[in-house]
Recover the amino acids of this structure.
């Protein structure tokens, strides 16, 4: 029977009354066309393009044709045609594109795979790897299987300012380099979906197990419609915002919500710590180091959030690369992601799938978590810019002991946006080039702490030629409060006028409190008229800058620009190249005046180098300030005495006699006692001081060939334990263990070590006893026993 007769019979059996033609496509040459696109090009409104089974390596665009693109599944009802009729996008463009206001386009019965999102928007974000529907279109998508596609966002499907009726669509195992691996539904405050987006309640869709930053499966953004999302399968029961989110950038879209109705889950989450190792396998359980998983992202998907006792993904020592990892790594509420140490866990990142603006670690709308103990290392020679760390709306969490280095940063650099009550501690960003920002908080830091952070050797390529103001390389906007302690900003370079560092508020009417203490600002230089560093507040805020050192900075008018209500105490300002040390600008037109109090500081050139550009500002320059050479022991950054004070420095014991209300940390930038000899010094280092110790940590004398190291100490969640038993001395241990005792001398747990392994062994204690019960806060003694002998001990403090 001829092909035309078969088609006619099929249509009659299905009761389909068609107003247009049917154009057929087959790879074997027995149809009118051998490619789908050629058939579409020849079609007219109302036509059907009917595609026979095969793998079609092409990128299909509906153009302006209001047509129906079907596989034989549509005419026969045989679902096996879905898996055998494949559009393979060749990782070059979306598998299917519907655009330019096209109405009532219908796609049915295909597998769509290996597509790559199209570049969309000014920042080169790729969207819609499997299907891209954009610009006020209306489409019907029925019985399609969308998997294995790639994009920056919405890798499976993207609806941008468009609507669709989704029926029986499966979207799974797609990969986004930023967020929303499954489907992105993106509206706008000015766009009203009509008719709205619908998920068929009978022929239900399934959206599950997609990868990317959270949300991994469904992201609804700025949509002026309440969605009823009817699904057959989701990733897990009661999917959290790790999987599904709605986000809004506009007031007009902020009052809408989504309702999820699903029938089953693809998998369950594991309520247990999980291990990841470079020799692991994702087929393993992950429940022990011996059964470690390979992929950090897979572990983050599998682990269950536990708000009463956070579970932890523990990253074992080794190098982790794009060859064995899925990026970005998403963070999850009530889950810790912890490497064993900065030098032991290296995430080596190369440009991901040729997609610009890719992320390495990504978090959106998560809370109560910790990220710690690893280095994220890029390749600065990569031509595609990368976001190593993107954090949005993170609450009540800690990011600590992290190094990010050697990246060509995308425009936004590190994103740390809308964080509340978070601590960024022992965080280092170094040796990077950026297109614009190095550290950008997106909108605001709501509240939090930055402690022991380092930003150094960074270059911005931004032209920066606007004399009236440019965005700073490091911009920190604060909405409620910020405490910045013991941080270093140095050797950050720009092309021309772009300022380098700004700490700012602009929320007139409510008080914002900022304290900046024990920090170094060195070798920050630009040609902007208002300075390279600016501290911008309002007259209702409280901005305190204490015991900081500003050295060798340069701006066209001054090294530092300051406005609002700001107090400076115990600082060193030594920037001889700049025309002025400090500029207080005219902020009258911004609605406020400045009140600047300068007390107990060393200022090179004295009061004559403080420029007040508006007589309405009130600048109090007190007699307690000094004009002198600070007499640094060294100005060489590689020298251990860099910016320390010489014995005859005028800054020694010259700070304020009364430190009440300064809220100083207990230690200076070197980790020594902050106040020594009864009076504080100026600047970030205390001369002649001794190391500050928070916890008495006596140890039993250690056998020379054996060492026991424990960190962090004190600890809340777990502490790492490193045991070194080299060859020689005691030799290879026949048996070895760590016995843990409470302060009463009662043994609470024994951690066995590998008796066959000489050299270093890494383990940990999670604060639980031998019956897996949580131990109470207190001091515990860890005894290392080798061949029956107690050879070393460490005292640790557990804090609950």
């Amino acid at each position: 029977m001829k092909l035309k007769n078969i088609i006619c019979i099929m249509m009659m059996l299905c009761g389909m009354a068609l107003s247009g033609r049917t154009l057929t496509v087959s790879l074997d040459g027995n149809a009118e066309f051998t490619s789908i696109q050629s058939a579409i090009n020849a079609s007219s409104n109302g036509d059907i393009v009917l595609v026979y089974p095969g793998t079609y390596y092409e990128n299909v665009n509906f153009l302006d044709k209001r047509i129906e693109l079907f596989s034989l599944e549509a005419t026969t009802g045989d679902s096996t045609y879905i898996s055998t009729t494949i559009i393979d996008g060749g990782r070059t463009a979306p598998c299917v594109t519907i655009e330019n206001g096209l109405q009532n386009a219908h796609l049915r019965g295909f597998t769509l795979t290996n597509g790559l999102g199209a570049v969309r928007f000014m920042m080169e974000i790729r969207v819609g790897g499997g299907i891209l529907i954009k610009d006020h279109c209306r489409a019907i998508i029925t019985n399609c299987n969308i998997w294995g596609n790639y994009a920056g966002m919405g890798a499976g499907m993207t609806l941008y300012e468009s609507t669709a009726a989704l029926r029986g669509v499966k979207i799974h195992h797609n990969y986004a380099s930023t967020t929303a691996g499954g489907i992105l539904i993106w509206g706008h405050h000015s766009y009203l979906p009509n008719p709205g987006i619908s998920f068929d309640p009978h022929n239900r869709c399934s959206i599950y197990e997609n990868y990317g930053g959270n949300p991994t499966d469904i992201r609804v953004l700025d949509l002026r419609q309440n969605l009823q999302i009817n699904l057959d399968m989701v990733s897990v029961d009661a999917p959290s915002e790790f999987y599904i989110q709605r986000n809004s950038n506009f007031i007009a879209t902020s009052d809408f919500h989504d309702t999820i109705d699903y029938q089953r889950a693809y998998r369950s989450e594991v309520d247990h710590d999980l291990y990841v190792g470079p020799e692991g396998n994702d087929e393993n359980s992950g429940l022990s180091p011996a059964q470690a998983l390979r992929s950090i992202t897979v572990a983050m998907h599998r682990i269950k959030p536990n708000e009463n006792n956070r579970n932890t993904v523990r990253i074992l020592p080794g190098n982790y690369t794009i060859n064995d990892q899925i990026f970005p790594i998403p963070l999850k509420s009530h889950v810790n992601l912890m490497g064993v140490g900065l030098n032991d866990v290296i995430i080596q990142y190369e440009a991901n799938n040729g997609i610009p603006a890719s992320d390495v670690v990504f978090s959106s709308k998560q809370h109560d978590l910790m990220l710690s103990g690893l280095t994220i290392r890029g390749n600065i020679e990569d031509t595609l810019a990368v976001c190593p760390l993107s954090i949005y709306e993170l609450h009540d969490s800690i990011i600590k002991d992290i190094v990010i280095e050697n990246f060509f940063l995308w425009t936004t650099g590190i994103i740390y946006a809308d964080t509340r009550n978070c601590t960024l501690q022992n965080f280092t960003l170094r040796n990077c080039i950026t297109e614009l920002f190095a550290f950008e908080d997106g909108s605001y830091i709501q509240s939090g702490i930055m402690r022991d952070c380092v930003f150094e050797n960074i270059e911005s390529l931004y032209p920066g030629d606007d004399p009236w103001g440019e965005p700073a390389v490091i911009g920190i906007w604060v909405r409620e409060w910020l405490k910045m302690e013991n941080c270093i900003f140095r050797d950050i370079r720009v092309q021309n006028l772009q300022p380098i560092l700004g700490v700012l508020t602009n929320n007139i009417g409510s008080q914002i409190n900022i304290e900046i203490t024990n920090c170094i600002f060195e070798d920050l230089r630009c040609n902007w008229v208002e300075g390279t560093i600016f501290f911008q507040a309002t007259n209702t805020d409280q901005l305190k800058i204490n015991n900081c050192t500003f050295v060798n900075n340069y701006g066209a008018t001054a090294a530092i620009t300051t406005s609002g209500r700001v107090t400076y105490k115990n600082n060193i300002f030594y920037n001889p190249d700049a025309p002025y040390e400090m500029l207080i600008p005219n902020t009258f037109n911004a609605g406020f005046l400045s009140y600047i109090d300068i007390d107990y500081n060393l200022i090179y050139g004295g009061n004559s180098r403080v420029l007040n550009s508006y007589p309405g500002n009130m600048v109090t320059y007190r007699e307690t300030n000094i004009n002198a050479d600070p007499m640094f022991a060294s100005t060489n950054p590689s020298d251990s005495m860099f910016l320390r004070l010489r014995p005859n420095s005028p800054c020694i014991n010259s700070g304020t006699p009364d430190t009440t209300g300064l809220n100083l940390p207990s230690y200076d930038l070197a980790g020594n006692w902050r106040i020594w000899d009864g009076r504080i010094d100026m600047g970030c280092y205390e001369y002649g001081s001794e190391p500050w110790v928070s916890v008495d940590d006596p140890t039993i004398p250690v056998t020379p060939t054996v060492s026991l190291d424990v960190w962090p100490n004190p600890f809340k969640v777990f502490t790492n334990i490193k045991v070194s038993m080299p060859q020689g001395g005691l030799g290879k241990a026949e048996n070895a263990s760590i016995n843990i005792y409470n302060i009463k001398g009662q043994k609470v747990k024994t951690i066995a070590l590998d008796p066959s392994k000489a050299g270093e062994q890494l383990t940990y204690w999670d604060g639980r006893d031998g019956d897996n019960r949580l131990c109470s806060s207190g001091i515990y003694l860890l005894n290392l026993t080798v061949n029956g002998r107690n050879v070393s001990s460490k005292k640790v403090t557990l804090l609950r």
Summary: The longest strand covers residues 422-434. Confidence is low (pLDDT under 50) at residues 1-18, 695-704, 728-732. The domain at 707-798 is CATH 2.60.40.4070 (Immunoglobulin-like).
